[in-house]
């Protein structure tokens, strides 16, 4: 690889890593807001509020980008599926962080990259090497360790309600990510963000309406924070993957665990137990192994094409 190309890639990767760290920080703060709101409002209502509060910022962004001509040229079935998955994912994740520390919820949610790899075979027709399947299996062992039986939330004593909800959210996120990769082949990023927020606002709003709780005026700052952090995180993560190599940027998503630990300690004065630490190490290790293997395979293919 020429030196100029290497420097260009390094600069792009560094910029993308910074954007990824910013995105993770925004999303962690958003999750802290979700956890706070979950003590006062139903989870479906919080999902609706997530879409409603972000909508003005999304509309302004599309207008600023001059992208209105792209937002209606979409494959509606994929967008509807992403909307359903988005509502379900956010509702389940909010339920999870209501019951668990942020750091514990992140540990379980880290299984989503492994799930995306699994789903890429039947949906995207991608080939997954045998070594990747071993890494996925090890990652699931980490999940079982992190879900060590406590008997506190379910009489069966096998897993907690919060743990099950977070795993369900991770599965929805993985399916939505694969669906998004299919949609991105033809649809603009602006259309994907807009229709996700529209469907989340209308769909979750309709489901939440029978049990809607009046919004307290004192919660207005939290709703403003929900809008800004969610929108800022979306922009930052889009920039992160636009300029850098995915294999270089993706590992920094795991910095969410540091954010979770810090927020847990500062706001709720709690830390995860030892089995959560062990499970997190195994899951993150499996994810990093997959990223490293994918980078190596990509480099081999690139060298073969450009000897």
Structure report:
- The chain is globular and about 45 Å long.
- The protein is 75% helix and 0% strand.
- With 307 residues, it is mainly α.
- Residues 151-158 have low confidence and may be disordered.
- The chain contains twelve helices and no strands.
- It has helices at 3-37, 43-65, 76-99, 102-109, 112-119, 130-146, 161-183, 189-208, 220-243, 246-249, 256-268, 274-305.
- The chain starts with a helix and ends with a helix.
- The longest helix has 35 residues, at 3-37.
What percentage of amino acids are in beta strands? under 5%
Low-confidence stretches are 151-158
Helix content: over 70%
Mean pLDDT: 84
Quaternary state of this entry equals: single chain
Return the structural class.
mainly alpha
Termini Cα gap: 9 Å
Structural shape? globular
Topology:
Layout: H1 3-37, H2 43-65, H3 76-99, H4 102-109, H5 112-119, H6 130-146, H7 161-183, H8 189-208, H9 220-243, H10 246-249, H11 256-268, H12 274-305
